[in-house]
Amino acid sequence: MQKDSYILGLDVSTFCTGFSIWDLEKDELSKSGFIPLKNFNSWLDKVDEVCYILEDIKKNTNKITYIAIEDILQKFIAGKSNIKTIITLAGFNYVIQRKCYEIYNITPVLYNVLRARNLADCSVPRGVKSKNFILRRVAELHPEIKSELPLMKTKPEFAREAFDIADAIVVSRAAAATLLPDRPKEIIKEEPIPEEDLLDFD
């Protein structure tokens, strides 16, 4: 493994894009955060904001060697999700992939949400609300992030952005599991995504 190599993990959304940086040499989470996008009306402005942060990450972490992005398309309910929403989110995701390539000269790798969770030691038990479980599990694995996760302004609960950060960390953990030679590389059978974990915008 190249010295000072880092993974950039992204959970891309037009509301908020979570990111995480994984130190491959130390095999540990280096940094995590989110890019708020809800106040931008134009998707072009949203892209510009994400690119601004990506450029800043590159400037401060100039050894990004791998980019992992959660594959959002597999989280939609066939026949139920609004086609306009699917096109918007998928298009935004692919534009960010292209921008990552332009900024880092690295082709991003897409990770199926279930496979990423399995690789990241974050598999969700059946019958459990996945988003809440993932946030708790990530906080267990990385207790240092608890104090940094954003809270709602109206009540003492984690804000929506906290879940995006957790998903980004899962993606970078999954990428580390595939890249580090001492990690198991077993082939994990894909399972249907639980109904409560799918995105239904109707």
Structure description:
The protein is an alpha/beta fold. The protein has one domain (6-193): Nucleotidyltransferase, domain 5. Helix content is 39%, strand content 16%. The protein contains five helices and five strands; from the N terminus they run βββαβαβααα. The protein has helices at 43-60, 83-104, 113-119, 130-141, 160-179, and strands at 6-11, 16-23, 28-36, 64-70, 109-111. The chain has a five-stranded mixed β-sheet, with helices on both faces. A hairpin with a 4-residue loop joins strand 2 and strand 3. Helix 4 (130-141) packs across helix 5 (160-179). The longest helix has 22 residues, at 83-104. Mean pLDDT is 86; it is low at 185-193 and 195-202.
Task: Describe the structure in brief.
Helix content is 39%, strand content 16%.
Key terms:
Nucleotidyltransferase, domain 5, single chain, 202 residues, disordered C terminus, five-stranded mixed β-sheet, globular, alpha/beta, 39% helix
Note the total helix count: 5
CATH-assigned homologous superfamily = Ribonuclease H-like superfamily/Ribonuclease H
Please state roughly what percent of the residues sit in beta strands, choosing from under 5%, 5-15%, 15-25%, 25-35%, 35-45% or over 45%: 15-25%
Q: Could you tell me how far the N terminus lies from the C terminus, measured between alpha carbons in angstroms?
A: 46 Å
Unreliable sequence segments: 185-193, 195-202
Q: What is the CA-atom radius of gyration, in angstroms?
A: 16 Å
Structural domain tally: 1
Basic shape = globular
Stated plainly, the CATH topology is called Nucleotidyltransferase, domain 5
Question: Order of strands side by side in the largest beta sheet?
Answer: 3-2-1-4-5
Taken in chain order, the helices and strands follow as EEEHEHEHHH
Main pleated-sheet profile: 5 strands, mixed
